[in-house]
Amino acid sequence: MLSYIYRIVREFQQTHHCSPNILYLNKEQFHHLRHSFADPDDIGAMTDQLAMYIIISHDVLHPHLASIEKCWGQSEQLPEINVHHTVFAQKSLRNHKKGK
């Protein structure tokens, strides 16, 4: 899963001339991605390594990317407005563990 994510990131960069900072996944894809990391429960480390926030939605058929920043040269930091998406991913993980 991680190699696929890196491949679509490269394609996104080539097409849009900017880096994505949002990754959309469904629960199953998120589960597979988590197990690509040393600590599958450390969502912060995942988002840091990917340099993207993760949004989990049942509507996602295939992983896809978005960028809500301006293109290269404008800002190197992820916008703070997206902090809720990371929290959403963490809550979703907690609910998944509880069986919700």
Question: Would you write up a description of this structure?
Answer:
The protein is mainly alpha-helical and 100 residues long. It has helices spanning 2-16, 27-34, 43-50, 83-98, and strands at residues 22-25, 53-56, 64-66. Strands 2-1-3 form a 3-stranded mixed β-sheet. The chain is globular and about 30 Å long. The two termini are 24 Å apart. The model is unreliable at 78-94 (pLDDT under 50).
Q: State the helix count.
A: 4
Poorly predicted tracts of residues: 78-94
Q: What is the distance, rounded to the nearest whole angstrom, between the alpha carbons of the first and last residues? A: 24 Å
Strand order of the largest sheet: 2-1-3
Q: How many DSSP E strands?
A: 3
Strand content of the residues, in percent? 5-15%
Number of domains: 1
For this entry, what is the oligomeric state of its chains? single chain
Radius of gyration: 13 Å
Biggest sheet overview = 3 strands, mixed
Q: Secondary-structure element order, as H and E?
A: HEHHEEH
Strand-pairing-aware structural class: mainly alpha
The general outline is: globular
**How helix-rich are the residues, as a percent range?**
40-55%
Mean pLDDT: 79
